[in-house]
Specification:
- Helices cover 94% and strands 0% of the residues.
- The chain is an all-alpha fold and 161 residues long.
């Protein structure tokens, strides 16, 4: 019986180095897996930080875009108001010009039969000529004013934070 036990113990002792090597290999493999998981966790944490930073940046960019759109709308309104202020007098001038043209045509028609009204027709022709000269200069003044407004608006948009 003792011999049998002795044999069993000796057999177990012979198997022990192999089992120790197997256990050591398993431990090494587990250590490598643990290191791999640690690296993956570190990478995951970094990715989460990056996502958080990108979301914050995205939110700031979105807010900036909204502010720029609002500024742009305000600039458009101001430009339209300026355009209306400039163009309304032009339209009135044009209507006045057309009215003077009609009056001149009527007077010229009347001039042929009645020679006494010649002075009045000449005066009207002179007024017509002066009005025509004024209306010719209005488009260039309008372009200058519009260009100045555009320049001011662009300057204001660039200066806004």
């Amino acid at each position: 019986m003792l011999k049998k036990e002795h044999k069993q113990v000796m057999s177990d002792l012979q198997k022990l180095p192999v089992e120790i090597i197997d256990a050591l290999n398993r431990c090494k493999r587990l250590v490598k897996e643990k290191e791999s998981y640690s690296l993956k966790l570190r990478d995951l944490a970094q990715l989460k930080r990056n996502v958080r930073e990108l979301r914050l940046e995205n939110r700031k960019l979105w807010e900036e875009q909204v502010a720029l759109q609002e500024s742009c709308e305000e600039a458009r309104k101001l430009l339209k108001e300026a355009h209306d202020k400039i163009c309304d007098p032009c339209a009135e001038q044009q209507q006045e010009q057309e009215s003077l043209d009609e009056r001149l045509k009527d007077l010229l028609k009347q001039k042929e039969p009645v020679p006494q009204q010649g002075d009045l027709a000449d005066k009207l022709h002179c007024h017509f000529y002066i009005s025509e000269k004024r209306s010719d200069s209005l488009p260039s003044e309008l372009e200058q004013a519009t260009a100045q407004e555009d320049s001011l608006l662009q300057t204001e948009l660039l200066q806004e934070p």
